[in-house]
Structure formats: structure tokens, C-alpha cells
Write a structure and sequence with these properties.
Elements: H1 9-20, E1 25-28, H2 30-37, E2 45-48, H3 52-58, E3 62-63, E4 70-76, E5 82-89, E6 91-96, E7 102-107, H4 111-115, E8 125-129, E9 138-142, H5 146-152, E10 154-155, H6 161-167, H7 170-181, E11 187-188, H8 190-199, H9 208-219, H10 224-233, H11 260-273, H12 278-286, H13 291-294, H14 307-321, H15 326-338, H16 350-360, H17 365-378, H18 387-399, H19 413-420, H20 426-441, H21 448-459, H22 463-480, H23 482-485, H24 487-490
Parallel strand pairs: 2-5, 10-11
Antiparallel strand pairs: 1-2, 1-8, 3-4, 4-5, 6-7, 8-9
Length: 494
């Protein structure tokens, strides 16, 4: 069939220049796959018979800092921005001792030899330009029936699947990622599946950073939840997030119709369907990861007491192990720790909502609601946002401008120290804590003069008295927030 090939001028110019110097040059790899599928490629790769030294001679503005024959050719785009196009010499590789890096890279003379080392048939095609006029003539080099596999929506390894995965174990994750990324209906060919299941343990040889990158790409596809299911079925999840496997076959209670594993996947699917950010997807997938370790009893009345705290600890370990950024680790852990809230309309007060916001952070409330929605849908209920949750959102909007954090007090620690002639000490912290609880009860009290007067009154108490008052104010705060913490949580049922 005739394919509409639209290639940026600068890419075609590099190919034309190489051809004019007597070298073979092709567009190759994923960009060819995308062109055939009618997708605009994000990156362009060129392969050529020219050696790295010859490429550098032809394009003086280039960079060559590797042993794999890839030269970064600097070009100016139509809007005068500098862009780097990778141009790689035809090559083959051998001696993959660590399931990732070849010991030997050999430059070869034909594009066919180069294509034979690539991962999947849909990525092992090249485009050769015969002419470079307004309507250029071209031909597609397809030695492994990649176009047929595109039509049939099949991910198939080039040649011997086990050999391809021996060369680079990360390709096993890429197979799943492509099957999820390219759209609905894609499947992994049988022999390729079997090779993945056989060689799954070799994923241990791959760095956590590389595994994380592929795992994230799977989660960010429209079929990401199915991708995680495939990771489980093919034996790969054991080497990525084995903690999730603890939920397989673990039944829940009368509030759930799915196992912990199924529930987590369905929560993730909801987050993906809503196109939520990576942090929300991770939070949805991991929010109940602590349940298997906290399960008490069995059947409809089984309990999962404090699973959110256990899950938060596990989440921090999982994300640190996968080398996520400190920001993502901290944020997703916070979401998991605080995901378990059940708003009880009849029991809560505005003060309780202010305390809830104070505990979780106003900046985190919206994302916690998203996790709660995913949790609900993952439990099999029909509505993501029932009346109680809508009422909580109404109450949050009503009080969100009230003073709800130490930074919003009309006085700070320095002012209190000056007024009471105190030094930094636990006593100062107790006073500030009591003042915050006072304004959470009644925002009208957030006036500098009133707070300083209250602080002086508190300072008349001895050490034990003020400490007990501080503890009592915290206990009162917990009771005030009980309508949000929920009857389900108090009875250890969730």
C-alpha cells in the first residue's frame, strides 16, 4: 500500500548528503513503524554505511562519545533551533554477558545485517529514499514481515526470541510496553511470550533505573493496567514490584468484591482512564499494597487494621528501590498513608474539615480525592463521587481559606519568644500547637493580640500542665476529625 511519508527537511537533508557522498543511508527503527501507523514520530534515527569518522568528516558539527557507532549530528531546524539527529553506522553486536551491554560491536556493510540485531519486527524496518524531490520515491526495507505484524497487531521478536532477550533483558519489558502503547488489540506472539517467561529471572541483571523507566512507560499507556497484569502473568513483576504479588488471591471483606490484587489493578485502570498524572497512577496501584500484611481473620468481616501505614512504609521502600526521585517517593507515600478517609456527613464539623486539611495539606486534597475515587471504583461500586464525597468537597471549599496551618497563624515563633521572653524549647512548641488548635476550632481567634494574650495565659502554667493541655488538645482534634476518619476505619474494617 502507498504510505504517506512526511519527513522533516533536516532529516532528509542528512540522508541526501550521505547519499551524495556515496554512502547508503536509511530512516530506521521506531520512526518507520510510526510512519506506517500514521503517527508523527517523536524521534528520527538514521542508519548508514558510513563509519563514525566519515560521518564526522561530512558533518563537522557533530558529537561522537560512545563505542556503538552513533554520532549526534547537530542541525538547525526551520525555526533556527539546534537539534541533534542520531546517525548510526550499520552494526552487529555480540557477547552480552550482563543481559544488557554487548562486549563486541562490529560495523557491517549492509542494512540487512543491521536490522537483524533489532528487537521486534515492527521496529526492524527501514526506509530508503530513491529521489528527494517534492514527491520523493522510496522503498521500505522489511526483511522480517514487520508490516504484516503491524496489520495483525502482533509484537514478535526478530529471529530467535530467546537470543534477542539474552542480548538485552530489558526488551522483555519493552515487548509489554509496545503491546500496551500501540493501541487496543495488540498481542505478544506465542514464542516471544514463552521466551519472556523462560528468561524473566535475567531481569535481575538490569539496573533499577532502566527497569523504572520502562515500568513508568507502561503505566503511562492507555492499557497500563493490562500491562501490569501481563508483567504478572509472564513472571516479570516479581523483579519489579514483588510486593504487589502478595495481594494475588487475597480476599477482602463485605466492602469489596475483588481480591486485593484485582482491586489494585482496577484502581489503577480508573486513574489511567481519567488520564491522571504518574503520581496518582502509582498511588492508585499501591494504595492497598499493605493489606495482605495486615489482614485479620477471613470472610466478610475480615480486617486490615492500619494497612495504610504499613502500605506507606512499603511504598517508600518500593519507590526508593526503583530509584524514583525524592519528590515522587515522598508524595506518593503521603497519598498512600492518607488515602483512607471516610467522610461522615452527620458527624463532621467545619473544625473537623480544617483539621483534615491541616493533616494532609491543602495542596494534596485534590489528589487524595482522586485516589479515593480510584479506590471506590476499584471496589466495584458504581459511583466514584457519591453524595458524601461531594459534601466533603463542598465543606473543603468552604473552609479552605481559613487559617489551617502554623504558617497561617497571625503570630510566629519569634513573636511568641519575644512576648514571653522564651528560648527555643519544647514549651514554645506546645504553646504554638495549642494556639493552632484554637484557631482550627475558631478562625475568628486568629488575631495577633488575641493569640499573644492566649500565649501569655498558657505560659503561666508549669511544664507538666502545659504539656498535658497540649496532649489534650491533640486528642480533642482527633475526636473532632473522627467524622472524616470514619466509622469504617475505627472498626478496623477497611
Amino acid at each position: 500500500m502507498q504510505i504517506n511519508i512526511v519527513v522533516p527537511f533536516e532529516v532528509r537533508d542528512i540522508i541526501r548528503t550521505l547519499q551524495e557522498r556515496g554512502f547508503l543511508a536509511y530512516i530506521v527503527g521506531g520512526c518507520v513503524r510510526d510512519i506506517i501507523l500514521g503517527i508523527e514520530p517523536k524521534d528520527w534515527d538514521i542508519t548508514t554505511s558510513a563509519t563514525p569518522e566519515q560521518i564526522q568528516e561530512i558533518f563537522p558539527e557533530s558529537v561522537y562519545e560512545n563505542k556503538f557507532g552513533t554520532v549526534g549530528v547537530k542541525i538547525k531546524t526551520s525555526n533556527e533551533k539546534v537539534k541533534i539527529i542520531e546517525v548510526t553506522t550499520f552494526r552487529t553486536e555480540s557477547g552480552y554477558v550482563d543481559s544488557r551491554h554487548p562486549e563486541t560491536v562490529t560495523f557491517v556493510t549492509t542494512v540487512g545485517e543491521d536490522l537483524s540485531r533489532r528487537d521486534f519486527t515492527v521496529n526492524a524496518m527501514a526506509i530508503e529514499f530513491i529521489t528527494h524531490d517534492e514527491k520523493p520515491e522510496y522503498k521500505i526495507i522489511d526483511l522480517y514481515a514487520g508490516q504484516k505484524d503491524l496489520e495483525k497487531k502482533i509484537v514478535r521478536a526478530v529471529g530467535d526470541a530467546q537470543e534477542r532477550f539474552h542480548e538485552d533483558a530489558l526488551r522483555m519489558l519493552r515487548a509489554i510496553r509496545f503491546s500496551c502503547q500501540l493501541g487496543t488489540g495488540w498481542v505478544i506472539e506465542k514464542e516471544t511470550q514463552e521466551a519472556i517467561q523462560t528468561l524473566a529471572p535475567s531481569l535481575k541483571n538490569i539496573s533499577q533505573e532502566r527497569i523504572r523507566d520502562e515500568f513508568v512507560k507502561i503505566l503511562m499507556t492507555p492499557q497500563g493496567a493490562w500491562g501490569v497484569e501481563l508483567l504478572y502473568r509472564y513472571g516479570l513483576l516479581e523483579y519489579i514490584v514483588p510486593e504487589l504479588l502478595e495481594g494475588v488471591g487475597v480476599g477482602q471483606n463485605k466492602h469489596h468484591i475483588y481480591t486485593v490484587w484485582e482491586h489494585n489493578l482496577r484502581a489503577l485502570a480508573y486513574a489511567i482512564d481519567k488520564n491522571y498524572a504518574l503520581e496518582i497512577r502509582l498511588g492508585a496501584l499501591l494504595h492497598d499494597v499493605g493489606k495482605p500484611r495486615t489482614k485479620g481473620g477471613d470472610g466478610p468481616n475480615s480486617t486490615f487494621y492500619k494497612h495504610e501505614y504499613v502500605g506507606a512504609h512499603m511504598t517508600r521502600g518500593i519507590l526508593n528501590r526503583l530509584r524514583f526521585s525524592k519528590q515522587i517517593v515522598s508524595y506518593v507515600t503521603h497519598l498512600v498513608k492518607n488515602h483512607l478517609f471516610y467522610y461522615n456527613v452527620d458527624e463532621v464539623s467545619e473544625a473537623g474539615v480544617r483539621r483534615f486539611i491541616n493533616r494532609v495539606g491543602i495542596e494534596n486534597v485534590d489528589d487524595l480525592i482522586k485516589i479515593r475515587e480510584a479506590d471506590r471504583i476499584g471496589s466495584g461500586v458504581p459511583k466514584a463521587v457519591p453524595y458524601k464525597l461531594r459534601h466533603l468537597l463542598f465543606m473543603i471549599d468552604k473552609v479552605r481559606r481559613d487559617p489551617i496551618s502554623p504558617k497561617m497563624l497571625a503570630v510566629d515563633g519569634t513573636q511568641i519568644m519575644e512576648a514571653l521572653r522564651l528560648k527555643p524549647s519544647p514549651r514554645l512548641g506546645w504553646i504554638l500547637g495549642i494556639l493552632l488548635e484554637d484557631i482550627l476550632d475558631d478562625p475568628q481567634k486568629n488575631v495577633t493580640e488575641l493569640l499573644i494574650a492566649r500565649a501569655k495565659e498558657l505560659n503561666l502554667l508549669n511544664e507538666d500542665e502545659i504539656k498535658k493541655l497540649y496532649i489534650k488538645s491533640k486528642e480533642r482534634a482527633q475526636e473532632c476529625e473522627a467524622g472524616i476518619e470514619g466509622e469504617m476505619k475505627k472498626k478496623h474494617k477497611v
